[in-house]
Every structure is written in C-alpha cells, then in structure tokens.
Amino acid sequence: MWHAQGGAGSGNDLELLVHGVGGTTPEKMLGDPRTVRITGDDTAAVFRRAGDAGTAPAGTDPGSGPVQEAYVWCKLTSGDGSRALWLLLLPFMVVNLAHWMRPAAPGRPRTVRLYGLLVRLVALTLTVLLIAAACEVALDLVAWQCAGTRTCVRRHSWLGFLAPAVPGAPTASGGWWSAPGRRLALAAALPAALTGLLWYLSHRTWNAYESHRPLTLDPEPDTHASALARPGFWYGRRLVARLRAAHTAAGLLTVAATVATPAARFDHRPGGPAALDLLGRLLPAALLACAAAVVSVVCRRGRSENRLDQRLDHHLVRRLPLGALALLLLSLLYAGWSRPGWQSTGRLPGDPAFGALMLGQGLLVVALGAVAADLHRRRPDPRAAMRGLGGPAVALLGCALGGVVSGGVAQRVADWLDGTRALLPGPPVLLTWQASAIPPVLAVLLLLAAGLAVRTARLARAERDTVRHEHPGEPEDPGRTRAIAHARAMATLTDRAPLVVAVLTATTLLLGTVALTGALATRKPPAGAARHAHHVVQAMAETSQALGSWLVGLGFLLFVTWGRRAYKDASARRTIGTLWDVGTFWPRAAHPFAPPCYAERAVPDLTWRMATWTRHTGGRLVLSGHSQGSVLAAAAAWQLPPSVRGRVALLTYGSPLERLYGRWFPAHFGPPALAALHQDVACWRNLYRLTDPIGGPVHVPGGTTTPDVDHEPLRDPLAYGRTADHPLPAPVLGHSDYQSDPAFAHDRGRLLARLHPELPGQRPQERASFEEQRVAPAPEDR
C-alpha cells in the first residue's frame, strides 16, 4: 500500500512519488480511488488525488502531511503484448550495457574514448552476425541447398517454383527462378527486410520515447562525480542517428556480399564472360569501400554530453544506408543474370566469414578487458563488480548470446529441412559447433544454481539464531523464524550476481575457443591413431548439436511466451523486470537497435515538474523514489539547476543505487558520484530491509551536523508475533510496502523540517528567463 498519512510538513509542501519495477496505478500510489491527471499524457503522467486537484498550485494542504503527486511511468516499459518482441533485441541491449559499465577514470578522456570505441565496434559485429545468420538460413539453407536439391524440394512443396532443372532435360524444365543466382536474389528479401525492420523500430521508438528534450540549462562547472549531471546526457539524438545509419548500412552490405560472392566466384572461372568477370571484381571492391566507410562512421566520437546536441551529422553519413541499398540492388541484378551451367552444390562460402567474425569479436573483447583493467587500476573501487571487468564480461556474453542463438536457429532450420536423411551439407561448421555449446552452458547454469541453493540453505540456517536473538522475551515460533531467515538468505542472492557472470563468462570463453578449434579441426580430419578419437569427439558434438537445435526451438517459444506474459502479468513482470529495466534505463550509446531508453522520457518529465513547481511556489519538495524509481529520482535530481537542487529532499527506499548500480556502473553511480549527490541535494534519507533482494544501503556517511544517509535496517516483519497493534500475523514485506512502516512518515517529516524555509514565489519575468535558458557550447564531446 503506497499511501501513508502523517508527516511534519505543511504549507507549500509537495511529495513527488516515483514507483519502481513492475508498475502500479496512481490509485494505489496515492491511496485513493479518485485521482486526476495533473500533467502528462497516456504514456507517462503526474496524478493527484481528486481532493487535492483543486488546491492552489502552491500545494497547500490543511492536513498534517504534504500534498502527494504520483509520477506513473510504467507504460514506458510495458503495455500491449506486442512489446514482448523487444525481448528478441536482448543481445543488442546486453552489449549496449557494456558501454555504461566502465570503471571510473577521472582525467583519462582518451582511454575512456577508446573504451567506448571498442564497445561500438563489438556492437557492430553483433549486427553483422545477426544479419549473417539470417542470410545463412534464407540464402544458404533454403535457397542454395534445399531449393537446389530436388529431393528436398519434393519434401517441401512450397519450394517447388525454385526447383532446378532435371539433368539432361531441356532448360524449360526448370522455372525462371530455378537459376541459383535468382534464388539467392529472391531469398535475400528476408534478411534485407529484417534489416529494414530493425531500422524502423529504432527510428520509431526513438521518436516515441527518446526525443523529449531535457530541461535546457547553462552548463555548470564540471565539479560533479557523475556524468548524469551533464546537460546532454539524456539526449543522444546525433549519436543514435549516426549509429542507426551505420548499422543499417552494415546489415544491407552483409546481404549484398552474401548474394554477390558466389556469383563472383563462378564468374572468375577460366573462360567466363569478361563483362561479368569485371563486374564481379568491381562490385566486391565497392562493397569493401562502403564497409570501410561504415567502420569509420562508427569510429567517430561518441556521445555529446556536455551540451544539448541537436545537430545531425553530414548528409553523407545519413545517406549511407541508401548507398548500401543501391549496392544491394546492384548485387541482386548481378547475381540474377543468366549463367548457363551454374549449379548450387555444397555450402555457400560462409565458414571463413563466421570464423573471422567470431575471432574479431574475441579480440575486441580482450582489448576491451585490457582497457577496463587499466582504468580500474588507476582508481581501484573495492565494490566494483568483477574488479572493473563487468563491461567486457557483459560484452562477451552479448556476443555469445548472439552466436549461440544464430548457431541454434541455423541448426534447427537445417534439421527441419533435411530431417534425418543427411541430404544437405547443413550450416557452416562453426555454427553447428556454437549450437552444440547450448547443453554445456545449461549444465553449468544448473550446477551453479545448485551451488547457490546449498549456500542459501546454509545461510538461512545460520540466520535463524539471529532472528531468535532479535525478539527476546517473545514465544518461539519455529515456522515464523524459518520464514524470516529464508527471506533474508534469499535476499543475498543479488550479491552473488558477479559470481554468476564470472562463471558464465569463463564458460563462454572456454566453449568459444573449443568451437573455433573444433571447426578448424573438422575441416582437416586427422589421420592414423588420432582418427578414432576424432570420430568420438565428432559423435559427441553431433549429439550436442542436435540437442542444442531442439533447445533453441523450445527456448524461442518459451522466450516469447514468457515475455508476453511478463508484459501483461505484473507478478511475472517483477521476475524479470529488474534486469530488463536496468538494461533499458541507459541510453543507446553503443547499439542503435537496442530497446528504447525510458529514462530519456522519464528524467526530463521529473526535472521539468520539479523545476517549474519550485520556481513557481518556492515550496519544499520531497522526491520519493521506490526501487527503480529511486534511480530515476537521483538522475532527475542531478539534472536540476543548483538553485532548485538545493531545495529538494531525496527519500529513497528499496533502492538499488549502490547495491546494483554502484557496483556494476561505477563511473556513474560509484562512491564519489553518490557522495556528490548527497552534497548537491538539500538532504537525503535511504530506507532498506535485510529481506529486500533489490534494495540496500547506499553507504554515504553524513557530515558533522547531518545524519548518515542510510537508516538502520527496517524491521521486517513489523511484528514477530501477534500484538495489540498487529493482532493478525504481519507479513514479510521484502521489497514492497515501505510506506506502511512508521519510519517512512517519520523520516519524511524530518526531511521537510531540514529543508530551507519557504521562499516567495518567483516573479513572472524570472520564470520567463528560466524557460528561455539555452545550453552553451562545450569544448569537447565525450
């Protein structure tokens, strides 16, 4: 229950509530079935109780507590079931997270830019991998292998119009689409459409969610320990547009190369047409030149955070996808030209491409790890996850997720087309080895889950003694004690996330090396005594590949089904909502096809509301954030002008600011950043419970005249047994219902009392000048 009466405030006092993961309704947040929208739209808005809506803008309340407003932003991340398809963009979101997970490095701008450059290059290879996998399925398996084999065509009648001519029969026995090049040109529509869909989703979601301009203010001196205070942090229009153009062009160039390469290889044979041979040499050169332009665009400077950058890049950069589309159309015409005697046999030449792509990803991740280790060594943070290597680990997991899914889908489609007849060569060897990595990864996860379960059970048994000592003189209730101890032990699993990521990263690195080595060894089978061992390993790999292909099919269905349920069912959403909302909190700085960033709408909303209200009324404001809402509240507080920020109190509860964000994103939420936030706002209080799996202390000490930010851990449950105040058993609340604790109203009242006295309302001309402020140019981009 969100609403809690009481408090010490009166007069021009406002409490702005920001909910957390899973979403809620304004009625629940305000504790009143009658609410009205004060400002906003159907996507995100601020609500008040109907009884408070007629109050003067100053927010006067004759009661004992401040007027409450609820900012509801849950529709930014949830809604209709079609948004479950955003889960298919998970690899892109994961690699985008790696950009924000770098260690803090003051005074090392060049190293920071190198870190961002490496992440953007890894993200580019992930886009190429996805489109290449789609080309493998549509062009190689379907159009080249299956459609080029009459036995496979007979098993799949929908491919009949692509059937090749019967050997020895007249040319008319095959249809117009029977030529290999024309089959490839037709099948290229699928990966090209996928590229266009990714471009459309990126462009549409940016306009819908991320195009809202933040509060435009003159930049302050760079005295903050977090980049979230910079004016242009939540407005990445220029970079997203640039990366979207580059990644779209890369996807189209991948399709064009897949279509043109087999035709060019056929034309290079002795005695071939000279005109086609020349075009087959010029076209790859043009594709390479355009690819070099794509890489150069990605390597340009990253985000512009020191100013509100509303400019776009040169029109040549924006026209890059059109140039790639022109080369794709030229490649389709070139491949579709009549070539007598050309037949589709074997596989398309994809083995070297996938091998080079996987090797390049591995080298980029290793280089990223070296840069991250150097940054962490310059300013060690003992609380940073994996000693500053969280970003490279997450980038590797993103690449592995893309590779495993690509290999599993390709193997599943090959098994479906061919059945058990072994008529088709199948996907490239490297992809089949990547598909075989799925069962070992699941086995490692199961072992890890079993180990964590044993550790949690031991910790729960140890916590029972602590729970007993916390309630002296009360009758012993073994069941109650076990429930409380179990809740506390389960809450500690969040702190084991670095171990889980480290184990998965090591497993991924090992299996990736095995896959690359196995793919090379399969191309050159050994002779002599090693042949028997080779056959045994190959048989084990084939069994794992078959199991992996079925697991991918099952996992895809479960993935979409679970994602759709999560967006409709609040309880299911809370299960995965935390990690998903962490991933989509950050702007798209490395991958333009990642899911949209809801904070680029939510943070400006909160900033505008607080700035205009305080400027108009001169009143006291408590910014009250729960769970992920506390992160939005902190980000919004950083974006306020200093004159407004100093008149805002921050109340956080169930907050992952330090426990999750401080450990995994030390450059933006590390100890210096949180200490700076404490100095910037007027006052700050943080509430948490030992049974909360998400929230925790922020570890920011107070000053000589101010208390520590962290309250001592709240009691959970509020009563061990039945009491006069709790005649029925009090529930273990964990992450919810913080406002039902008496400490909430007490600390809110103390925050209001510590704020500066009320100031007179701002004069109209001052408000007008506030609205007209603009951002001054910054010396450099980040």
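That was protein one. Protein two is written in the same sequence-then-structure order:
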Amino acid sequence: MTRPARRTAVAVALMLAATVLAAGAADGIAAPHRAPARADTEGRGTWQVQSLGSGRYAVAWTSPVPLPMTDDRPRVVGPGSVLVGVTAVAGPTVRATVTAPVAPDGDDLDVVLSGHRLDETDAAPTRRVAAVPAAPLELAGTVTLDDDPATPGPFAVVTSDYTLPSLVVPGLARPVEMVGHVVEPAPEAATGPRPLVLFEHGRHSACYQPGDADAWTAAWPCPAPFVEVPSHLGYDYVQQVLASQGYATVSVRANGVNVQDEQVSDGGASARATVAIAHLDHWATIAADHQVDLRRVVLVGHSRGGEGVARASIRIPLTAPYRVVGQVLVAPTDFGWQTSPYVPTVTLLPSCDGDITDLQGQRFTDTARDLTDDDTSLKSSVLVMGANHNYFNAVWSPGSGPAPAADDWTGPSRRECGARSPGRLSSSEQRAVAAAYVAGAVHLFAAGDQRVLPLLDGSRARVASQGRAQVLSHAIGGGRSVRAPSPASPATPPGGAATRLCRGADEPRQASACGYGGLRAASAPHWSVAGDRAPTRQFLEMAWTAAGQAGGLQLTAPLDLTGRRLEVRTIADPRRPVALRVRVADSGGRTALLTPVGGGVLEPLGREPDVRRLWAQALVVDPSAAAVDLTRITRVDLVAASDRGRVWVADVSAAPASLAPVPERRLPILDLDRVTVAEGDRGVPVVHLPYRLAGALTEPAQVVFVTSGRGPGPDERLTVDLVPGETGGSVPVSHEADLRADRRRTITEVSAWATRNLVTDSYLGQVTVVDDDPRPRLRVRTQRLQIVEGEAARWTIALDRPADYDVPVALSVVRSPRPALRVGDVDPDWIASHIGVVEAGRALWRTGVATFGSLRPRRTVLRMSIPTLRDGVTEGPETLRVRLDVGRRTFVRTVTVVDAR
C-alpha cells in the first residue's frame, strides 16, 4: 500500500516476483554506507558496485528520498527487465548480489517497484496512447442472482475493541501490538453458534501526524505528536454486514510488523501469520462468552495480510482449538509462491492494482492445481475490473479515514485505469464489490451456502449490490477433474490453427517460453517473469488466421462430463477480442460443436499497454445435449469463430454442479534452516543445509531447491524426490576455501518450492561462510592537524598488508566547533564538482558534502583531501571536521585552518 504522505517524484508500484533475502553483511573490514558510488544526478539516487570475487558483485542503489511504503517489494533488474539478483531492502537502500563476467554498470541496472523504475526520473516516455478511455467491459450472458450476500441481516450489531500484551515475534526486534476491532451480533441475538471471521490488513504507513499530510516517521512505537494509522478499521464496512448476518468478526492491527518487515527475508509473511494465530489463540479463551464456533473460522487478508493469513492456514494444524474452513485473499502478495491445500480460497484481484501490478495473488490458485490429487477445496480467482489496490480498505481511501490516503494507480486521470476513466470504480463502488464477494465467500465456506457459488466458479453471474462493477472469475478444485497440457496433448487438425506447448514464462529469448510476443507491458500473472527462479507450468498456445481453424488437447485420460459442465481456462491475447466454440470428441470418434456461455467471446482485459492483463477467462460449456459419450471425452478443441486471434489454454476440467466435501487433511510442512560455517583453507568444501519436515509424509513428494549467489554461472536447481517416512534432509551448497583475507561473509541463498504432496513454511534458507583468514589492520591518519589556507587537508587510509576485497571509504564533512570552515574557504572547482553552486558564506558542514573512494584489491593506501582557498582576508582559525566511514568502522578527524602569513 503506497504511503500517502510525502509522495516521491517517482510514481511507484510493481512486484518482487522472486524470493527476497538479506544480501550479506559488508565485507573485509566493513561494508560501505554509500561508496564507491555513481554520483546522484537529477535526484535519481546513487549506485554502488563492489566486487565480491569469483565473478560476483554486490550492487546497491540508495534512494534520494525514503522508499514508499508499498506492499510490493523493490527488485534490481538488468536489460530486458531480467531479475539479476536476490534483492534486499534496508531503509532507502536496495541491494542485490549479481553474477556477471564483468562488473555491472549502474547505468545498466534499474530498481523497479510496482512497475516503475525508481532510479530513472528522466526515463524515455512510453508510446503515446490516445486519451480516449475504453468503454467498461460488458460480459454477455451475465445473470443477476436473487440471493445477494451483501444484504444486511436481521441481527443488531455491537462493536468493541481489545488490547492485549504486545507480542514478541521471531525475527522482529521490537514487539508487535495486539489490537482487535470486534464487530459481532448483539449478545441477545438468537444467531446460534457464530462462525468467526478474522481480517488482517497489509503494509501501510504506521504513523501519521494529524493535520500534516507531509509528516511521517519510521519510529516505532509512534512518538508524539504522531499517532497510529488505524488500518485495521478499514474493513468495518464488511464486518458490519457479516455481523448483522450472524457472524462474529475481528480485524487485527499489524503496524508493528509493517515498520519492521524489512528485517526479515519473507517480507513479514511469517510475522503476520504469527499475529493472526495469536489472535485466534486469544479467541479460543473467550469463544464461549461470544457464542463463537471456532470450528468455522474464515480468514480474510488484504495485500501482505493476504499472504500472512495464507501462511497461517498452512501452519495451523488440525489439532488446533480452531479450524480454518476458508480464506479470502484481497489483492494479496505471494512472494513465496505458496498455497494453502485443503483450505477453500477466494482471491480477489483488482485489474487496476497500482501496487501489486503483476497480480501475483493468482499463484494461490495456480500453484494448488498440481500440488496433490485429493485436494477438493475450491480455489477461485476473481478479477474486479476497474478496482485498485487501496480502496478495499476504507482507511486507505481518500476522504474515508483519519489519515492521509491516496489512489495507488498513477498516471493520467483520463487514461484507462485513471480516476476519470469510465471503467474505474470509485472507492465506495469498489468496497461494495468487496462486501458482496467477501460475504459470499464467507457464506459458502462457513455456512455451506452454495447459492453464491456462481459468483466464484467461472459462471457469468453478478449480484445487485455490486452496482455497475464488472467481475470475472475462474476456479479449480471443488471436485473438478482437471486435465493440463502435456507433451502428449497438442494436436492440430488438418488446416487447423497453429498450436504448440510453451512454458509459462516471459523469457523472449527462450523458444520454449510462452513470452508476451508484442505485449511487453502486459501483466501475465499465470507466468513467471524473466529471471524468476520458480518452477513453471505448461500452456497450450493456439493462434489462427481464419474462422473455423481449430486446435486443442488430446486428453491423457478421458473426462467424464456426465452431470458436469466443461470449463476451459483460456488466456486471450488482449490486443483484440476473440470468439471461440468448443468441440468435444469421445473415445469412439464422435464429436459435438458447442457454444460457450456468452457466445464464447473473450473480451480484452485492458486495452492500453500498461493495463493489459493476460488472465484466464473461463469458457463454460453445458455438454448435456451433445450426441457423444459423455463418460469418455478424449479430446477438447477450440474452434475459431473470429477471423484471427491468439489464446493460451491453462487447462480443461469437468466441474460438478456443487462443491465436493473437503478432506480433513494437511500436508507435511518443509522448513529450510540457516547455517554459518568457517571458510576453510583450500578446496571446495560442501556445506549441507538442513531442511525439516513437520507432519507425516505418507505419499511420494517433490521439492525444488534453487541455490543462488554462490559464484559464477547460473543458479543451481536441485529437484529432490521424497519417499514416505522421510523426516528431513539437506541441500548441498559448495563454496571456495582459500588463505586470502577476502569478503568477511559470503551468503548463499537457497529457496524451496514445494511441487508435490508437501508445502513450505520457512521457504528461505541460507549458508553464511565466514572468512577465517587474518584481516589486515586499518589505520586512518590526518597528515597535518593544522594547515594554512591555500593548502589541502589530507587524510591517509592504510592497511598494513594487501586485502583481496574492496575497502570502500566515504568522507563526509560534519558539524565542527565555531568558527567552522565555509564554502568560500574551499577551492571553487572542488565545490563545483561536489555540490554545485552554494552560497560562499554557508558553513561547509551544512551542505552535506561528501566524497568517496575505495581501497581496491591488493592496494594498501588511499589518500583523500579537501583543498582550501587562500582568500587574503584576515580571520581567526577555522575548523574542518570530517567523518570517514571505512566499511563498518567510523573515524572522526578535525583539522584547524589558519590564515596565511
């Protein structure tokens, strides 16, 4: 969620599609704050590149202003938007470790956040698009349901708040507040046992100063006059509806996580899960007093809160005193590419999300498809056209809460997704949609009310309370029998469309990847981005140049469509609408051509390049009247009804009329460890990074480990097959041992991706190798403590023997005793090259001037100086005080400047 106060000159908001880990501590004697660096020109920030040896480089970009408080995470990318390294954030600095044959240049790197380059204020303009917004999407065949889940119920509602002792959360330095906002039926309301719905908000500024929209602080707890942003009150509008219908609800506050989640490698997902579980533990002690049935708990999380509650669902065992029967994830992050098996899940995705622009929450649906065979929990994705990221939370919406707030979508207001576009939803319209779909999911999961299922399962359905908003959905699970593209699938009839299998990845240089073709600015949430390390899925690509051309899937096992409907999750090239028919064939060779609901038209999802969405729409077909053997459907073809087009098929499935029961089961959980070892003297030692399994492994399982940052060459990928009964193992990670004093700590990151019959919780591990060779001694010496004006103040930074690493040095002028040296007392050429035009009478320390250098490998001496100017004016002694940051060590030195005689 974009911090509304003091917005930077750079519009912000994109994705960190890959694992995020802490980049290692500084090397050698210490790590730099800023040096050596590329100068900050035009407010673009500074780049720093440092060799780590063996073809590895530490790159860091420091922003000239505080980074925005968004739910997305920054990433470092190279040419072609390829992720070049594992990214970490510390304050205004974004770091990554890059493997490259030569040292990268900061000019060749970018820092991307929510689709925008933070380090480029003068980036080339994008292609001009006419400022005529597309008309709102119209979905043919849409029906309005009689039962509207947002209709208030008959019960009186009461509101209360509680505060518990602060919670100590692993990985966070300071405790997290435990505050809950409760909205529930009145105690006397005859509701019967009440399901509990818990809400958790996402990442937003924690503190604001009333009356000053530009004031902000990163301190925690909020110091006066700052007060906490009550983000947890932003879902009261849904709580009120649910409470009137007989549900107990609580919305929990997570500001203490938001201000500290840069300290942890998973973006705070584990911490948010810990907070949610702690509140559920509290409710286990008071459930009887509130008539709450803890066997029916639904979790609702927004943005990073969505990933947090999903992690809680993974972590909560069946033996807990409460049972999670469903979850609703609103514009969530999914940095870990995780999902919650056996937990029904609805994911709301806003088409105009200006924060999580890649709609990565789609992974909660897609990852679940192939994870295990008997998971019948519904996994639904819902695309809300014209919705942004913030407006689901009333406190984050301008004019709706006490704190400053903003529209996270940036860009011209009359462009598509702009505030004045006909297709954009107002904040109240967007919250009306959220109320309907969150309440509908709660009714389905906690009360078993399947009347709302058409809102979530790919049917073209709506309810009156959503107003003019257009919403699409698709689903897997729920008892569906699914067939995914495989090497045996593609087959093109004579004279048919062009078809091929492709990997779900945007890697234009890889022939096997689906790629975007001419859609480089589009968001493709079903695919991984260039440079991402996650396993990919296969899709069927089909392109045609004339109506009647066809292509499709030869099914690896027949589908039984008896009493079921056929669904084809289909991604359309958004540059033009397409129309399709579906042809099915049985094992005897008989075929039937069927028209999907809505005429088989798949509308473009976003017409302008930066709002295009390559998102799967559901082609839904009723095959009951087809003259084929519905028990053995062996082939499904798409037949073009439009002149030309291109689509990608994710899968086809046979969907039952009602949801199947969900097994009371949880998969075993894999956790990666972290280890620290001494480097050693020679060879290539192998460190075994442990992983543990919690829960019994009863079926063969598979996990993919990806190791990055260990040296030259690509990341290493290791696929491990686990057999029933295993409880753990290890990942081999090698490093180079030597007798040189080089980087003090080398970190190798390991990511775990569960692909079959298990899940991950702590999915990020690392091996830290500590250099055990003697370090050179450092000395900083001032050449002369007193100089005559016209001479240079000089400092020598020296090592007693060569090092095999860079020792970066930053020299900053700091406050000194009066009278302090002024700008006019320093050589004007030096001033011009370091700070430009500054008033001559201004104290030099007030300018914040700094200069940078580095002791390169094998060098032992670095000299730095500030030249003074002989001005011929009689004046007393003046002082010049500097701070030298040499890695992690800091030295302060003072020089006195006297008049020339």
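The chain has a mean pLDDT of 87. Keep this in mind for the problem set.
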